[in-house]
Amino acid sequence: MMTDYYDSNAIQGTMRVLHLEDNLLDHELVRAMLEEGDMPWPTAIERVDTEEDFQARLADFSPHIVLSDYSLPSYDGLSAFEYVRATYPHMPFVIVTGAMGEEVAVETLREGVTDYVLKQRLERLVPAVLRAITEAAERARRERAEAEIRQLNGTLQQRLEEVERLNRLAEERGEKLAKTAAQLEEALKLQKTFLAETSHELRTPLTALLGYLRRAQREIGKPELLGDPIRVAENMTRLVNDLLQLSRGELVQSIEPHFVNLADLVRQVGRDYGVRVVAPKSLEAVGDPMRLGQVFVNLVTNAIRVCGKADLVHVEARKAGSEVQVDVVDHGPGVPDDVKPRIFDKFYRGKEAGSAGLGLTISQQVVLAHKGQIFVLDTPGGGATFRVVLAALEDEDDEVLDTAEA
């Protein structure tokens, strides 16, 4: 079975030669020259003298090389060569003829014939055959290599185009990300500017209001009547100051520790905002009562805002070993697991948000400043529970504080 690529390595055992020749004596001379010559393989040679037989044996005999007379009664060597070149491009083709002028010989070589040998000089036949097979094999290997290189170049070109496409896509996405980042940065700047300006605007009237309330407290006969308004005004002033700090990127750090009964603190918040409180009579800790009150106000108001009404919110306070735990429990939509790690981030606002996204951030910073913990849990039956954990007041703390006061 012939293939499009000719390879001399395919010659195993016997070299097959197809001889197109009408003269039987000339054929026998060629056979003898090949069989007695210094060929590296045994030779099997078949003769045909018509176009029909030549084309049939070319397919059936599968020769390694074709030898052809230049002129035959019903066919000619160049026509045979054209058929071979069209059918088996790498098949070596040598013209062996008795009479050929120099111009005709040059023309046959120009047409692509591998070589020609005059019958009067058959001693050139064996070297011509060997050279023809070697050149055909080299040409086949070269074309295979060129084809592989073209295929490799095509693959590389495809990959380069893919890399360029990915680079363009990366540049487009990079531009979009840069634009989004610039928009986010601008939004944060606007938000900080708004908070700073709002805090400045609120601080002046709150300071004046607090001053009026304290003066009125001193002048009236029953100062306890103004205790709650003064406390609310002080909390609002502290909140505004915290907002101003956060807008500047600063942390809430100013803590003034005192003895504090957390049970009384959460009960006061419950009364102020109409939520049920479950707490023992006394729950002692050391902390800043105004700051801790601010934490529980933030948590309770946030829960009421999320739930929509106060009766879906309650507060539980208890002592657990050496810790005090205060839970602000709501039965609202709850906090998804993917949101929990970000719930205390500055300016983070959930779906139910109605604030600037700073209340939980401030609460976390205050609790951390007290060396405590704050985290969010799922409420059984649905909702969210924000738990604040602080160190409980121990007996040793009482003795230290008593000594300090003495």
TrEMBL record:
Annotated coiled-coil segments of the chain: 130-187
Keywords: Coiled coil, Kinase, Phosphoprotein, Transferase
Catalyzed reactions: ATP + protein L-histidine = ADP + protein N-phospho-L-histidine
Record PTM 4-aspartylphosphate, positions in chain: D69
Keyword Transcription tagged: no
Histidine kinase domain sequence ranges: 197-394
GO terms for cellular component: plasma membrane
Pfam families, A to Z: HATPase_c (PF02518), HisKA (PF00512), Response_reg (PF00072)
The protein's enzyme class: transferase
Enzyme Commission number(s): 2.7.13.3
Record domain Response regulatory: where: 16-134
Molecular functions per Gene Ontology: histidine phosphotransfer kinase activity; phosphorelay sensor kinase activity
InterPro entries recorded: CheY-like_superfamily (IPR011006), HATPase_C_sf (IPR036890), HATPase_dom (IPR003594), His_kinase_dom (IPR005467), HisK_dim/P_dom (IPR003661), HisK_dim/P_sf (IPR036097), Sig_transdc_His_kin-like_C (IPR004358), Sig_transdc_resp-reg_receiver (IPR001789)
Keyword Zinc-finger applies: no
Gene3D superfamilies, sorted: 1.10.287.130, 3.40.50.2300, Histidine kinase-like ATPase, C-terminal domain (3.30.565.10)
Organism: Deinococcus yavapaiensis KR-236
The protein, known as: histidine kinase
